[in-house]
Every structure is written in structure tokens, then in C-alpha cells.
Amino acid sequence: MAGRPVDHQRRAELLEAVVDYAVEHGFSELTWRPVAAAVGVSTNTLVHHFGTKEQMFEAILDRLRERLVVSTDDLLGERPDLVTVARVVWERTSDPQRGAEFRLFFAVYGRALQAPRQFAGFLERVVSDWMSSLRDVQVPGTDAETATRRATLVIATIRGLLLDLLATGDRDRVHDAAESLFAALEHQL
Q1: Which of 21, 68, 146, 162 is the most buried (most CB within 10 A)?
Q2: Looking at the domain assignment, is residue 56 inside a domain?
Q3: SS3 of residue 79 by DSSP
Q4: pTM of structure
């Protein structure tokens, strides 16, 4: 006997509500009962639409990433270069209004590193998605090794700076360091 099929539109609606809840309440509150109560459904409904708790975490992170990509794409224009993309990503991720989203991102990232089998999909995409995009915006003719090295530098530096900013709140110092990254990239290019 097969279970009832997942209503994908309902799942998308629930996911938006679950993401908003997760951003507001953080990682420690992401258990079935509090989430279900907050979004007005039963725990069985959440399990039906998301599967395991780890799958729910991955869906949350995927949706947060989609939100960031959409908000970033709106600012880039037709042919952005690496420095422009890095600046826009930094401006979006370091926006104080997005702080809760990225605290959640880092909390789940840490959990994924501790349980890589459960979060294999997230760990496969967490770098590769940005890597591909950042390699693609580099100057045509840039060799693959150089493009990969630059993309890695941008990803790792922005994530490190964001983690520092979230931990310390020292916006001026961290933004100054980000500007140093952009200046170094401009000099290289």
C-alpha cells in the first residue's frame, strides 16, 4: 500500500513557513513539535512533506541559498565580473537583516560536518554551487586552475569574514578586510 503523494505546492508553502521559523528561532529549536506547532500543522504532516529531520534541514538550507541567489542575481546585471559578484555577495550576506539566516546556515553547516552521511547532499553543494558560478564570471581565457583558485579564495574568504562578523559584530573591521579582498582581486585581474 503506497502512501499519499506529496503535494508539492503545499510542501513549498510549508517550507517557506519552516524557513521563517528556523531563521527566527535558530538551530536548537528545529525539532518536529515546535516547528509543527509554529506553522500550524501536525508533526506527521511535516514528516510526510520533508521525510527526516536532516532532510528538513537540507530543504531549509537549499531554500535559504535560493533566496540569496535570487536577491543577488537581481543586482548583478548581464555580464558581471568576479569582483562585482564577490562585492554583491558580500553586501547581501553581510546585511544585518540577513544575520539570522547566516547564523542558521553556519549552525547547520557545523552539524553537517559532524554527520557527513546524513548531510551528503548539502556538503556536496555548499561549495560546488558557488564554485561553478564564480569560475564562470572570470575573464574568458582564464585557465581552469587559476579560475578555481580565485573562486576558492572568494568563497572561503567571504564565509570566514561573515563568520567573524556574526561572532564579533565588528562591522567596520570586517568590512575593511572585505574591501582588501576586492582590491586584491582587482589588482590580480
Answers
A1: 162
A2: no
A3: coil
A4: 0.81
